[in-house]
Amino acid sequence: MSLLTPDLGLVFWMSIAFGIVILILTKFAFPPIIKGVEDRNKYINESLAAAKQAQEDLKNVKADGEKILEQAKKEQAKILAEAVKSRETIIRDAMDKAKKEADVMINVARKQIEAEKDDAIRDIRKEVVNLSFDIAEKLLRKNLDQQAEQEAVINQLIDEMNIHKS
Amino acid sequence: MFSKTLKHILCVWMFLAMSISLPAETISQDEGSDPEAVPLDVKELILEHLKDDYEWHIATFKDKSISIPLPIILYSKNSGVQLFSSAKFHQNDGYYNGFYISKSGKYKGKIVETDASGNEIRPIDLSLTKNALSLLIGSFLLIIFMLLIARTYKNEPIKPKKGLVGAMEIFILSVYDDVIKPVLGEDYKRYRYYLLTLFFFIFFNNILGLVPIFPGGANVTGNIAVTLTLALSTFLIVNLSGTKEYYKEIFWPDVPVWLKFPFPLMIIIELVGLITKPFALMIRLFANIMAGHAIVLGLASLIFITAHMSAALSSSMTGFSVVLIIFIYFIEMLVAYIQAYVFTIFTAIFINGARVKPRKAEKSLEST
Question: Which B positions 85-114 lie with beta carbon below 8 A of chain A?
């Protein structure tokens, strides 16, 4: 039957046509198509992975932020405590210093007062001596006649004074 | 997009079916008065279509056949290389330069010449016949189509595709991911483009064969020469990619020695198996596509057969056969896909079978 006998001419043309189709399609048509699809799949997968990574990073960043905030709070509390402490020490130091200075000044003042008191006493004593001499002079001048009596009084007075002084 | 194409195909076919049935009815009126009318030779009509032809017959209008003449290329020992148009046969009463189309006998329908003793002999015939031209046109269209699709991938590689290109991408990937990758396993990269080409070549030509107007309609993939070439290609690629183990299993299989030594029974069986595999592929594609064309033509012929009978019968038969033809056309489109799919998957399986790994690997596979 002629339907079942392959015709040589058609085999020839078919070989040419099929050969050309294979040559062109396997070189220029299917590789870019398959490559395009595979590239796209790769791109999508990479994008998904990147998105997941970004999400995780974001989560980490949040956690980090919280940690940092907590740390900062701790630090702040510590700094505040330290500040309080240092303020107290400063105040205490200042007070101590002031007290010391005040003590020093009081001492100086006291010494001065003492010295002045001594001076005053000395002055008074001089004055008293002078006065005494004046009195004595006056008494001497007035009661020359009654010298004996007067001398006795003066001496008595001087003695009293000496006693007072010592 | 596909449904649109489908609609086009159906519209064209229905139009054609009507245009065939209309003159048929007018003829039937004429023939009613003419008792000596020649009965329609359905078998001849169908075979005429299924066979290859030297010219592309488009239609017969008022006893004049309209057809595209095709170039005839011959090499004969007597007259050397010959190149002429097939129209020359019509002009010269069927003869040209001593060549003619045989009416009967072994070379019926083929170009022959007579040798000195009056026997018909066949020159080497490389004529661009109807099927050859259809093949070339189909190949050209396929290449253009695929290159246009590929260009969109070159221009915008990452962007998802829409419309026809997107549909073709799904189609290509369905073959790529569901046939080539799972069947061939790790070897798929070497054969993937060939198998894709094979699939789309067969599918495209199957579909083109279903289109009833000019570039289509030829019984291309239902021609044994075409399927022979495809099967030969599969045979070559399978056996060229055979591993050592594959050839060892053919020429010295693991069977008792008496099965292969004095008389190489197993070897003969293996060799027969080697040939029957592509042979089955060749016959399967050829028979399926040819049968599809034959059924459509047979159903269309029903209209002409019943044309002599009563008007009620012939008109109801016309409607019936048109409905049936539409139904068969749907099936044929399915067959066009299935046969391309089957040819591709079997080729992939045979290639995979030729890439046998050494025994050890197989045993470890069995144990798992």
Answer: 108-110
